[in-house]
Design goal:
By secondary structure, the chain is an alpha/beta fold. 36% of the residues lie in helices and 23% in strands. The strands form two sheets. The chain has a five-stranded mixed β-sheet, with helices on both faces. A five-stranded mixed β-sheet has the order 8-7-6-9-10, with helices on both faces. Helix 1 packs across helix 2 and helix 3 crosses helix 7. The radius of gyration is 19 Å and the shape is globular. The two termini are 18 Å apart. Its EC number is 2.7.1.33.
């Protein structure tokens, strides 16, 4: 079994692969204050009762692949792999790791590991050209060329950040539940805010993706647009630009990168 861990700014997603198939997944909050020992206890709690694994931490785990946008968490997870999974091959996505995706950026080290991993999975599953829209703490748009290169991207404030900002900065507004309203024209303040979030972000996706498509390919219809991230379902039904929804895109990318690097460890 391969354990994949995607550490985002807000949430950490874990996936368990049996071959090419994801057989279990978990989502937990990201807390940069957790120590390696605390993370190990958390992992044991999540995986200890899974029928495909043994009762002891590490039983049944044959490999680990990790990417993180939070350096302090990556440091602690490195210690977890050393102390608790010492005999298990572990791939941590960082400079020097083979991904198979050339990065066409002024400074490749600036690109978040999760965005590169998403590009790896997009190329494998759908080919290029492609655009990955990841709905996380930020909403990111990542362009993959027809040759499978990471061509660049767009970073915009995420859905939850926008909701929090409205609640903090609006004197008569408050934090609301993220849900689809009855109609675009809200009949109360909550529905009006929900409409602004859902339809506003759908419009943002359609607008940004349309411009990226025209830059990425001579025929914009050749570009496949893939949505991923925990908040993608909020926008899927309202955006006309999204072709595919793959909630486990980053975990699939981690599986692929693990396979490309494990023989080199």
């Amino acid at each position: 079994m391969l354990l994949t861990i995607d550490v985002g700014n807000t949430h950490t997603v874990l996936g368990l692969f049996d071959g090419d198939d994801i057989v279990e997944h978990w989502r937990i909050s990201t807390d940069s204050r957790r120590t390696a020992d605390e993370l190990a206890v958390l992992l044991q709690g999540l995986m200890g009762m899974h029928p495909l694994l043994g009762e002891e931490l590490g039983d049944g785990i044959e490999g680990i692949a990790i990417c993180s946008t939070v350096p302090s968490v990556l440091h602690e997870l490195r210690e977890v792999t050393r102390r608790y999974y010492g005999d298990v091959p572990a791939v941590l996505v960082e400079p020097g790791i083979k991904t198979g995706v050339p990065i066409l950026m002024d400074n490749p080290k600036e690109v978040g590991a999760d965005r590169i991993i998403n590009a790896v999975a997009a190329v494998e599953l759908y080919g290029g050209p492609a655009i990955v829209v990841d709905f996380g703490t930020a909403t990111t748009f990542d362009a993959v060329s027809a040759r499978g290169e990471y061509a660049g991207g767009v970073i915009a404030p995420g859905i939850e950040i926008s909701v929090e900002a409205l609640g903090v900065k609006g004197a008569q507004l408050r934090k609301i539940e993220l849900a689809r309203p009855r109609s675009v024209i809200g009949k109360n303040t909550v529905e009006a805010m929900q409409a602004g979030i859902v339809y506003g972000f759908a419009g943002q996706v359609d607008g940004v993706v349309g411009r990226m498509r025209r830059e990425l390919a001579a025929d914009p219809d050749d570009v496949t647009v893939i949505a991923t991230g925990g908040l993608a379902p909020m926008v899927l039904g309202e955006s006309s630009a999204i072709d595919e929804h793959e909630p486990w895109l980053t975990l699939i990318g981690l599986r692929l990168v693990y396979a490309r690097n494990v023989s080199r460890l």
